[in-house]
Amino acid sequence: MGPWPASASSAELRNPAGGSRAVPQARLAWPLSPVPVVTKYFDAPETPYGAGHRGVDLAAVPGQDVLAADAGVVVFAGLVAGRPVISVDHDGGLRTTYEPVEPKVAVGDQVYRGQVLGSVLAGHPGCAIAACLHWGVRRGDEYVDPLALTGEVGEFRLKPWGGGP
């Protein structure tokens, strides 16, 4: 897979295993509109098969439209472990995945940024509300934080808090 286009602005994505990779800012659009509340954040696994959360969970309502985060080709629309999943390949080696989603697209369909891919279904494990959309992104074999590719998230530093007023 080739490098990102030279014209793209970039930010650093930090890999917990060490190193960093430049990726374009605001490369992807949000898959839900309006911009949703994040109910569970990305937690990169330390090893390829280790524990972690390989995407983000976004607050949704059952039946809400799921939108393509960028132009691409649908490479999967079916069941994984009994849950309906859609995966889309994009230029630059990115693949976005959305679940649980009732698909309105089929494998091989070309989609445009913002196109409806399907609708959110209730029943995502660990979702404390009526429905959550799990949104994942990979570049090659590496999972990356989808929020870092929306241009909405920067680097955060936590300060110690003494618990006082």
Mean pLDDT across all amino acids: 81
Unreliably modeled segments: 1-24, 154-159
Query: What is the beta-strand fraction?
Result: 35-45%
For this structure, the CATH topology is Glucose Permease (Domain IIA)
CATH class: Mainly Beta
**Mind summarizing the main beta sheet?**
8 strands, antiparallel
Helices, by number, come to 0
Broad shape: globular
Between the first and last Cα atoms, what is the distance in angstroms?
A: 52 Å
Q: Total number of β-strand segments?
A: 13
| Percent range of helical residues | under 10%
Radius of gyration: 16 Å
Category from helices, strands and their pairing: mainly beta
Q: Supply the number of structural domains.
A: 1
From the coordinates shown, what is the CATH architecture?
Distorted Sandwich
The name of the CATH superfamily reads Glucose Permease (Domain IIA)
Q: How is the quaternary structure best described?
A: single chain
